[in-house]
Amino acid sequence: MTISYTLEVADARFAGFSKLLFRWKGSIYKLLYKEFLVFSFLYGFFSIIYRCLLNSYQQDLFEKTAIYCNQFTELIPMSFVLGFYVTLAFNRWWGQYTSFPLPDNLMMVVSGNVHGTDERGRMLRRTLMRYANLSSVLILRSISTRVRKRFPTLDHVIDAGFMTQEEQRKLDSLHSDFNKYWMPLAWFANLAAQARKEGRVRDDIALRLLMDELNNYRAKCSLLFHYDWISIPLVYTQVVTLAVYSFFAFCLIGRQFLNPTKGYRGHNLDMYVPVFTLLQFFFYAGWLKVGEQIINPFGEDDDDFETNQLIDRNIQVSMLAVDDMHQNLPPIEKDKYWTEECFALPYTIATATETLKPAFMGSTFDMRMSEDPAQHQMVETPMTPRIQTPRMGFYKAVAASPAPSLKSFARGVRGQPLLRLRGESFNSDRERIDEDSEDECRKDGQDLNRTPQRPKCLEASEQKQQKGVQITVTVDSANKENQQTDV
Length: 487
Known about the structure:
This protein is an all-alpha fold and about 475 residues long. Helix content is about 55%, strand content about 0%. The strands form two sheets. The protein has a two-stranded antiparallel sheet.
């Protein structure tokens, strides 16, 4: 049975957790007292041998062994190994809890979308929910020892009313080497499709909603099965167990109180009872016991899941939702505050003081602001220019370079920068390039307005003419004239 102490820690008060230390059921004392007694007995056994049965030479040898063991036991990373293992086991435990298949969402969808108050409609709704609960019973029989003891065979499941004789024959007739917990859910899907054909499910949207909730329910059943199938790797569990047991095995020798008269370092006092060693055993071994208990919550420990009670709860509430509560609505009436626009809900005397507290309006609601009115005047802020990279189509000359450098990239075509401000447009870039071209052409004495169709500048042509090269320049494609110049 799960041990609940939530009510006792509802309010934080002085020594609030101290009351929990005196519980026995579900406590660490119940889990650890046997190992604790064995460790204490073995420690006392070695202490008696050292003090009473060994001669002086043997005592010297025992003392050197104890000092050596105590020196190297601290090399075992107990906190790291145990902390990581228990964290992993706790996450696994919480994942199994959240994966438990509860039929609440499914039964609401069935109750609201499978219509009919006659015997056929009632039978459809009850059968659908019975199939869903049967699937959870079959999967829990496979992973929980409590449920397995309650339903050792399928005949016990039939006697409980989850399955009929004909359904058992169909279940047995399907040969499969794997777990067949999914078969009742397949019956659910086919029966829902049949209800759609009969008009019990009004439209395809309602059928889709049924299928979605069914798949969510099936996914949780499947996830529980895989949690039971895939465990924490055995090697890690073995490493943690060996680390704890070997550590305290060496502590049986290394933590012995040696003769104070021999002047060993750290052995100036003989207390007989190793108080702090026993506390260390209690904490570390108890930590290991916590991981051992929560690694599989489907057993019969005090804090394991109450699977049998969950089965009883699920079948009861699902049948109530789809049968007794189907279309069983109370009459609609005007509420108590029908004619009141503003109303206040009543409080008891024990809670009346809560009305004196102001409502929370936000963390900055009561923030103190400056009293200077000049600080609250609105001002217009200029637009902050931001650097953007223009389209690279205008700068193909840079891209055509076999090895462009960062300096040439920043300089751009004809000395124009490739970076511009946000306020500048691409048209302004074109105009600047055209103006530069016109300036260079004017320097060479060219008349820009003589022929509109002619290019604005023919620098390359003029350079080649100076070298005595015969070139052909097409002035206008419409005139189809070729001018040849010989130097």
